[in-house]
Amino acid sequence: MIQNYLTNSVSRYASKWLVLAIDLVTVSVAFVFSYLIRFNLTLNFDVEKLFLQLPVIAFISMVAFLITGSYKGVVRHTGVRDVYNIFNAICLSSILSIVLVLTNRQMLLMDGFTIPLSIIIIHSLLAFIGLTASRYVFKVFYTNLINRGINFSKNVFIYGAGESGILTYNALNSISRSNVRVLGYIDDDRQKSGKQINGVRVYGPEILNREFLRKKNVSEIIFAIQNIDQKKLRKLVESLVEYSVQVKIVPPVEDWINGELKASQIKQIQIEDLLDRAPISIKNAKISKELNGKSILVTGGAGSIGSEIVRQICNYDYKTLIVLDQAESALYDLQQELKQNGFHNFIPIVADVRDKNRANSIFQEYKPDIVFHAAAYKHVPLMEYNPYEAIKINIAGTKVIADLAQQHNTDKFVFISTDKAVNPTNVMGASKRIAEMYISCIQQEGGTKYITTRFGNVLGSNGSVIPLFKKQIEKGGPLTVTHKEITRYFMTIPEASQLVLEAGAMGEGGEIFIFDMGESVKIFDLAKNMIRLSGLRYPEDIDIKITGLRPGEKLYEELLANGENTLPTYNRKIMISKVRELDYAKVRSLIDELCISNMFFSGDTVKLMKNIVPEYVSNNSEFCKFDRSHPEEPIESREDQLNTERLSILEDLLPSKHNPSKQ
Question: Own/partner pairs for 41-47, CB < 8 Å, 24+ apart?
């Protein structure tokens, strides 16, 4: 009954005025005790003067409380700040009392009103102790009464006994009727080991073993260390997920609400948190100088990479930002997001990069100084079954925008490629490699500076493996992995986008920039860690199913082709690829031929792609039939044969003077 009253009524009726009244009573009692202590617990003093002085002291204390606002704190959440306010109030009341006593001695305002300074000092100490103790007594009483009968379903350890760890403890304990019990802190500092903070013991990291966690029935471990080394975090988390405990993490200080940590912000650790990637700065001086006052066009601006490039550009002082995409709904969502964040100087355009007339009108109207070309089809299995679309968007679409950039004197053209363009085994990768080659060809004409950026998978992008695994976990599994040994490079979307912007700023034309992707990740291990980070067990709760490599899929991705190497730049995350020399005139002629053949749905387009990119060898695909069946066959003879076939195709496509039926 008392418990129900406290939980349901105290918050409504226990006002600050009640706290003020209790404080005045406490101060008054402390004043009486200060006399008793001063006179050795006897009444050998003028009691009548005591009762004359008591109302004055109570009034002075009330004035001090009103000025400092010490009575306004929520008593059940008393903390260091509240104690500091009480200290200020006591100091102020003591000073006022001393001033009043000294003034009365000089001016005789109140007859017989005199208080020994020793009494004032003793009273200050007693009042401070009484006010502080009363709050903590009520706080402990309230907490114990509220928690009585609660079944603590979660036993928690906090990793990190620093300031962030203490704030995490306070955030967890600030929730009424919380079913979380903090059993202890874990800290690497040996000097803290064995000590207590808020009555909670600090342990060393050596306790993190299966037996200890089982004995303590630990449900969660919360990492509360700011700026923790990502490699260390990943190592710790990977060791903990074996023990069937949930692992959570405290967000960075800058993400706290009004500078305060809320328990709701402590989130379950994600696989992205374990990626060893550099922090992303909001603004970069070199990028700022490059984009300042410029008109910028981003194609594919509603996609994963394109939209993040747009978001980051919005932080700079550009002149105009044109966001182009054929996906109407995604572009609308991005438009609303930017508006809500206070960005208005951008122009969303629904258009297709393959439509040369439409694209030309956009270039004529807005005259972009810089183009970031992110529009592309990127799903390997889909493009393997739809080579027509891969060629049309990834090659012909790139060709349209690149040609228009040259025609309209655009300063820079930044092409976003993929690691799948290196030694491609699928149509998508080959189409992006051919687009890279076309960019190299058109760079030879001078004028516009053409820059290529090449990197691997990005975490959380549309269609990537991590969102797929999350959906499969939500449905109860199984998780599908194409091969047990398959590996991929990963990078966060913000980091990839910033490196694209920085590469565009440093590029002088003709470079292929390679991004440092870190270590490749085994997808099977990634799947197991995601299951365990979800608090589930593999394979007891969720299994992993091996489905086999999809058409065109590689086991391992590469960032450099055979015969390529890199040169460093001032940013250790960006390198310049030294690519093989091309016969630019021949390559450009072949690419033109490929685009024309594709327009007429020619069945030999993939064969033409393999001729343009000799290292393109299909894997697990119907297009394996176009690969060289005899490795010893001279490349020259194969090219002669393909040239004959191409001439035959062109004769069929173009009107002939000697064939009236084709005119």
Answer: none
